[in-house]
Amino acid sequence: MGKVGVPDAFFQGFAEKWSEMFRRNQSLVHVDMSHNNLKVVDCEIMAEGLKQNHKVLGLHFQGNYGDIDKQGFLHSGIPKKIGEEAQIVRMQSKLKGGIVQDSRCLELSVHSNCWVCEGWSEVRFLYTPGKSDNIPNHDVFIPINLHLEFEHYTPDLMLACEDNEKVYECYRMLPPGKHKYYYSIGGDIRVAKD
Ligand SMILES: [Zn+2]
To answer: How many structural domains does the chain have?
Structure first.
C-alpha cells in the first residue's frame, strides 16, 4: 500500500507506466508533467517510451531532472530549474497558436519547448542539388545538413525524398517568428538559391 490517498503506481513503476503509455499512445497530444520532481532514472525510462511516440505535440517537463529539446525529445540529467521559467512552463489555459504573448519571455528565450502552447508549426525544408546550387551531380554519400539558428546551427541530416531521390528534405517544427538557417554539404556552407 502507498500512502493514504496516493495510488501505489506513483511510487512503484510510475515511470515505466508512463513510458509504456508514450510508446502505445495514439490520442494524447498535450501533457503537463512539470514539477513532479522526477529523478534522472525516471526521466531515462520515460525518454525511451517517448522516442517511439509520434502523437504528443507538447510536453511540459520543467521542475524534473530532465528537459525537452527543440525536437521534442526528453533528455535526463538536466537539473531542475526554478525561478523565472516556472512562471510560464505550465500549460496555458487559452491556447493561442502562432502567438507568443509575453515579449519578456521572448527576450529571455524562456520557453517550455511545448509545440502546442508556443504555437509551433511544421515547416518542410528542401534542398535540390543542381537547383539550390550549381552542382547537379551530388555524391549521395556526402551528407546534406540543415542548420537552424534557434538550435545554434547544430547540423540536422536531410534525407532524400521517397518520390524523388534528387531532392533532400527535412520536416521541422519551428516556433513563431523569423528563422535564420543555412544548409551544408559535406561541411561546406551553402545558402540555397531557391
Ligand atoms: Zn503546452
So the answer is: 2
